[in-house]
Design goal:
It comes from Malassezia equina. The chain is α+β, with helices and mostly antiparallel strands and 274 residues long. It folds into 2 domains: 108 residues, Phosphorylase Kinase, domain 1 (2-Layer Sandwich); 153 residues, Transferase(Phosphotransferase) domain 1 (Transferase(Phosphotransferase), domain 1), CATH 1.10.510.10. Helix content is 41%, strand content 22%. The protein is built from 7 helices and 14 strands. A 5-stranded antiparallel sheet has the order 1-2-5-7-6. A 3-stranded antiparallel sheet has the order 8-10-11. It is globular and about 60 Å long. It starts with 8 loop residues before the first helix and ends with a helix.
Length: 274
């Protein structure tokens, strides 16, 4: 809600001195902001009163700005729909045990989404992938054992996400954060959707495979480890379940893998044709 005679509190937060623009894309701007919790008196049942001191937390704010080339009503509708869809995908994933940023607030009318700020570095940076513009190449690389361990964790998280029928839509190592304690956090669900089709899950995996190939030279063993972990998780957690009247005696993995092979073939034919 707007304050009388003023802007919405979140819009004021975007203009605060502690707020900085982290990234700008074609669809949204991403900010790093400090959210303050004001001092407030707390009264206990026995009549005692204590004052809670102000606390701060760092949040990520994603602002889907309106497009001037669209009709205002259409732009507002699309912005609200995409903001709500991303929030629902985050909540659905979190409820299924997927490590995703905690949702802080949603303002679909203004295209604002507040999430927990994840400390750490992206998996792309950790692996020492091809540097982005303005970024220095990483000199030290994790050991092979460390890399394979992280790939196992990635595969498990992707398995959990797909078992919840959440399709990420933009799986890259840049959209996977590695916390200092080694936890993998999946981020940027802006293109996410909900689907139980094996084809959609296979396409999700293919997108990640292509991202590995383009960003991390000689990464084939790493992606194979991701697939092995993914296969183990989905086999264990979908064995004997039913989807649209079909019983998965051996789990969903054989069906997803068959679709992945088909998607790979289509991708190679597309590359040959140009």
């Amino acid at each position: 809600m707007d304050e009388p005679g003023g802007e919405a509190p979140v819009l004021q937060l975007l203009q605060a001195p502690d707020t900085c623009l982290v990234k700008q894309g074609a669809e949204a701007k991403v900010y790093r902001a400090v959210l303050w919790e004001d001092e407030a008196p707390l009264t206990f049942p026995d009549g005692r009163t204590e004052t809670h001191h102000a606390r701060s937390s760092t949040v990520l704010i994603k602002h889907r700005f309106f497009k001037r080339y669209r009709h205002p009503a259409l732009s507002k509708s699309i912005t609200a729909q995409r903001t709500i869809s991303e929030a629902r995908s985050l909540v659905r994933s979190a409820r299924s045990g997927v490590h995703v940023p905690r949702l802080v607030f949603v303002d679909e009318t203004r295209g604002l989404l507040g999430m927990e700020w994840i400390e750490g570095q992206s998996v792309r940076q950790w692996l020492g992938g091809v540097p982005e513009e303005g970024e220095e190449a990483k000199k030290e690389h994790p050991s092979e054992e460390e890399q394979l361990d992280i790939m196992n964790r990635i595969g498990e998280q992707l398995g959990r996400m797909h078992c919840a029928d959440v399709i990420h839509g933009d799986l890259t190592t840049s959209n996977m954060m590695l916390r200092p304690d080694g936890q993998i956090v999946l981020i940027d669900f802006g293109l996410a959707s909900v689907s139980s089709f094996w084809e959609d899950k296979a396409v999700d995996l293919y997108v990640l495979e292509r991202a590995f190939a383009s960003t991390h030279p000689a990464s084939e063993p790493l992606f194979h480890r991701v697939l092995a972990s993914y296969a183990a998780y989905t086999t264990e957690h979908t064995r004997g379940t039913k989807t649209k009247g079909e019983r998965h005696v051996d789990g969903a993995w054989p069906h997803i893998y068959a679709r992945l092979q088909e998607v790979r073939l289509r991708g190679r034919k597309r590359s040959m044709v140009g």
